[in-house]
Amino acid sequence: MNRYSNPKLKECAQRLRREMTREERHLWYDFLKQLPVTCNRQKVIGPYIADFYCAAAGLIIELDGSQHYETQAAERDRARTAYFHSLGLTVVRYSNSDVNHHFQAVCADILKRLPLEGKLSPQVTDEV
Q1: 55, 86, 95, 109: least surrounded by Cβ within 10 Å?
Q2: β-bridge mates for residue 52, sequence order
Q3: Can you list the domains of the chain with their CATH numbers?
Q4: Measured distance CA(35)–CA(43) in Å, rounded
Q5: What is the CA radius of gyration of the chain?
Q6: Tens place of pLDDT for every residue, the chain, 128 residues?
Q7: Which pLDDT score, from 0 to 100, does residue 69 have?
């Protein structure tokens, strides 16, 4: 899916994987990593790094902290989303607050977007 190679983005993605936010760690370790379909974290796609990517569903999952609601960040997010849509990908966004306070609902929303027919779904808990 990577449209071109960018060593700086690759290095940045590796650093972001090592330094995931608390909410990213929670979603990754307590849900996405257990899925019967492959999800990648901090995936370089073109000129951007997606928080989580599931190729089987063409799905990008973004977690937004408070900085994403500032005007400039929201404009950058719109450009990212437009780029991903131009590749035929679906983008879903959840706030950090959603992950912290409505974890099961976030997981249920993600599950309904995945091609899981005939595959077992992971157990979801609210533990952090």
Answers
A1: 86
A2: 41, 61
A3: 7-111 (3.40.960.10)
A4: 17
A5: 14
A6: 445 567 789 999 999 999 999 999 999 999 999 999 999 999 999 999 999 999 999 999 999 875 645 667 788 999 999 999 999 999 999 999 999 999 999 999 999 999 876 655 555 655 54
A7: 58
Give the other-Cβ count within 10 Å of 128's Cβ: 11
Amino acid at 75: E
